[in-house]
Structures are given as C-alpha cells and as structure tokens.
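Exercise 3.2. Students should predict the tertiary structure of the chain below and write it as structure tokens, then compare their answer with the key that follows.

Predict this chain's 3D structure.
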Amino acid sequence: MNSSEFINLLRENGVVGGGGGSFPTYKKFSFNNLDTLIINGVECEPLLYSDYFLVKERFEEIIFTLQRLQEIFNFRDIFFTLKKKRLELADFLRKKDIENIKNLKFYLFEDIYPAGDEQIIIKAIKGITLPSFKLPGDYGIVVLNLQTLVFISEAIRGKPAIRRFVTVSGLVKNPLVFDVPIGTKIKDLIDISGGYLVDNPVIFAGGVMMGGIIGESFSIKKGTTGIIVIAGDSKLMVEKKTSADIFSKKARSVCDGCMECTLFCSRNLIGKKIRPHLIMRYSEDYLSGRRSIPSEVFNCSECGLCYVYSCPLGLSPRKVIKSLKEKSKRDVVEDFDESENFLFKIPPSYKIKKRLEIEDVKPNFHGVYNPSIISVDIKQSKGFSPKPIVKDGEFVLTGEKICKMSQNKLGVPLHSPVTGKIVYIDGQKIKIEASD
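Answer key:
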C-alpha cells in the first residue's frame, strides 16, 4: 500500500481524530516529506482513562498500526508519549515488542496539565512553536491520538470507524470505561455506572477543563473521550454561569495586574503571543468596540488554567477571550521568545484536581456494550457534514455507508455502527434500532 492508497482508505472509512479534535485524519497524512510521527497517549484531562485501557485491551492493533505506518512513510522518528505516572504502560508495550518498530522511542511527561495539547507536545519534543495558520504537517509532523490509531487499524482491515472507548466518571457510583458504538446514548452508560452521586449533576463531554456541557440525550461521537459528571455548584459551573461581560466589569474593579494568568498561560509558555492580563485590562473596550480586538486572542487554547489555577480573584480570561474570538476575524499573530524550561512552569495535575475539588478514581473496564437503539450525529468531524443516502424504514448492515461526502470537501462519510432498521432521520441525526 502506498501513501495515496492509505490516505484514500482513511477517508473512505471515516477516520477522524479520536482525542476530541475530530479532524479528518487523512488530511494529516496529505503533506509532503513527513518525517516524525508522535503518538499522543498523555491523556492530560483529569478523570479520563480511555487511552489507558486502549493500551491494555488493544495493544495488538496499536502495534500493528504503527508497523504499517512505518512501512508506508518510513518515519525518521516515532515518539510514543505517556505520563511518567503511567510508566507501566510503556513497560507493558515493551513486553509486547513495540520497540521492534523502527525508530520508535518513548517520551515521558510529568503529570502536568495541559501536557496533552498538541502544540505543547510538539514544542517539548521537536522544539518548534507552530506559527499562526501553520499545521504540524507543514513541519513534517503527524500527531495521532491512541483511539485514532485503533480507527486506522480497523480501516486497514477494511472496517470503518464506528466504535470507540469512552470513560464515564466523576460523580457516578461506579466509574467505568466502555467499548461502545458511535451513537450510544450517554444516559445508558450513566445508568450502567450506577447513576449519579449528587442531586444536581452537570455532565461534560470530553474533559472537565475543556469539554462542553451536555444533556442526557447526548450520544457518543467519534471524538467523545469521556462523559464526566460534576456537581452543579462546582467552581467550573460558576464560570459557565457568568457572562464574559460580567467578568470584564469585575476585572475593571478588582484585577490588580498580577500577571499570573499570563505567566502560567500554557500557550504563552511555548512562545505564542498571548497576554491575558492585558486583554482583561482593556476587555470592556474590546467587547464594546471602542478598541480593535488584538489578533493574539486566537492563540488562546481555552485550556482554563487562567480561571481554575492562576487568578486569585476568580476572573476568567478564557471566558472573555472566547467571546472576543466570536467578535473578531482571525489574523496572523507574531510570536515571541518562549521560556526555555516551560515544562517546569506548567502546573501539576493534582493542583488542578484540588482546585476543582474532584477525586480522580481509576475506573474499571466494563468492556463491550451494545445498546438496542442508537442515535448517530451526522456531523462527526471538522469540515463539512456528509449527506444522508438512506431513508426511514431502510435496513442497514454494520459498517454500511449511510452518509456520503463529496471528494472535494473537507470531511468524511458516515457508516452505520450497528445492523438494524432506520427509524428516524433528519438533518442532524440518524436513529437506528438494532436487530437482535
């Protein structure tokens, strides 16, 4: 198999990033002169263990995929990144002969947040700060999440991306990691996990730091790494309930310009020009239109350190900057010199969990779960939405294409995660009743 055939295989089998970004993976391999492959197994968000169990349960597929990628692209370097606290996974993979893969080596991070940020990983390993509008591929780099590796393994075997590992944790009675089809309702998984431990639960898809609030009707997507339950009166909910305007007005009254938000900004530390303390100082002018919004707001990754960790006064530069992004047009940002020892300045994860008052309990592995009814989101990735090619009442097979994507558009087709009858379809979802 050559690179062109491989890229087409990924596209036709609907492979996207499984770490939350959901970027169509075929585009990552469409650059010339790719020489570095980085496997992101850091899983830096608190409470997430999907990647941990992927290594334990799918190691054969992970190793197989890495071997095939090396055969196709002949990477000069392959870095398998993990946290030092999960060194057991590196030892486990070594026993499975992963180091027989040409040019592979492990890169271990301290338990810091947000070490799983793609740009932080690239800076730590390659010493490169990605400029505005540049992608890792422009520098010969491909970064893949572990779930993405499993998607690729299935694509090589002729199977589309239709199942994934997902963590259900936080304030549930029995935290678990599941292997589920895309479209599984999260309410089913929460019930199997014993239900809620609080009367006022709030559910996040992804991690608590960068994930979004969802309802019980939410269904698992290809990029859904976790379902995390927190209490409705938690520190994070204060931020969610407070508008950018309120934070801006509060900043005018109480911000003392301590610069902690800038000093500990993860993107600032790798050399991206982003100065949250100055943005907060003039935020009312930016929000009202009296001043032009600086393009540096687009360097913010919205990791949440400024609110959860840095600001002693409870201000959220992240919330304000997100609002400014929505009001502005992206432009090139000139970067500046970064801290040489930036990794030592990124906060340890235990401090994040302490501020959030959450306990990081290692879940058990539930294994395969197959619901009787699934509700599949038509849009599963960045780019354009595919077009449905099935109708109500039709019978579909597992892996059958149910939505197509034009060849000249960024995006991937969608396949049925189960065998069964389509009972509902609209512009957003396809509901399928699985056959016995």
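Discussion points: The chain has four domains: 3-156, 162-234+358-370, 239-347, 372-436. The chain has a mean pLDDT of 94.
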